[in-house]
Amino acid sequence: VTNIIVSGIRGRMGQSLAALVRDQADQLRIVAGCGRERAAGADAERYGCPEIVPFEDAADVVEMADVVIDFSNAEATRSLLEAAGNALHGRALVVGTTGLETDTDRALQALSEKAAVLIAANFSIGVNLLLGLTERVATALRAERYDIEIVEAHHRLKVDAPSGTALALGHAAAAGRSAQLQQLRQDGRSGDTGQRPVGEIGFHAVRGGAVVGEHRVLFLGDRETIELRHEALDRSLFAEGALHAAQWLATRPPGRYFMSDVLGF
Ligand code: NAD
Fold this sequence. Notes:
By secondary structure, the protein is α/β, with parallel strands linked by helices. 35% of the residues lie in helices and 25% in strands. The site of nicotinamide-adenine-dinucleotide has 23 residues, from helix 1 and helix 4.
């Protein structure tokens, strides 16, 4: 049995994970959750775990876990690392939270010398395939002739934009053109923008309703448009991928891992 701590247990992804773990009780067990408020007994059980501790107290429970899975938000992930970074040594950490601060990225990189760490903006097989395809298409279609725009849509409760997945697709596109995304990134456009610079990669975020997640990568030429598109139909898609990654990661030595390592492509 793989013992798991779910950070952000009361959230949409946390609850999607809890529902899947319930169905695989012979292989997976949630030993504790982290959330804003402490809970025990029936108050915790209804979220699918025996106890919930605040992020600041995560170190108290981390010892019970083979792997911690974090789907919270930038602030909570930072608190988790501050509180339990040392307790995580020798264990595994899967991070699905997006919009992380630069300092948190650095802390995760440092932690990967002592723990197995996997960070992914998206745990679906489809999006991970799309990352590779985006890089290939961007390599084949030259910047002078094909403009790249990335359009994403998410539910109204999402707090960061562009989505982590859109940025990952942007990094893949930039890599395909042997460039750094920072130099090409353009978030939205408004007003007197001037003509589109060659090579720019534009990001557009649609927010509303209950959209689970849609990503489109457009390659716009003078006489043709190519579109790579992915639509997530159900959040459990990400939860399933994250659990698969967590089981895989739980037996790895310290290091920084990627979804491509888990999926083998
Ligand atoms: P959510 O808002 O439903 O859940 C977040 C949880 O974290 C909630 O329980 C909330 O109470 C808790 N939280 C937030 N801020 C906190 C704070 N400051 N202190 C303590 N607790 C705090 O969000 P969600 O839809 O479950 O998404 C969570 C994260 O996962 C987001 O960053 C989202 O972009 C990301 N996400 C990633 C993937 C992927 O495949 N990698 C898929 C879906 C969502």
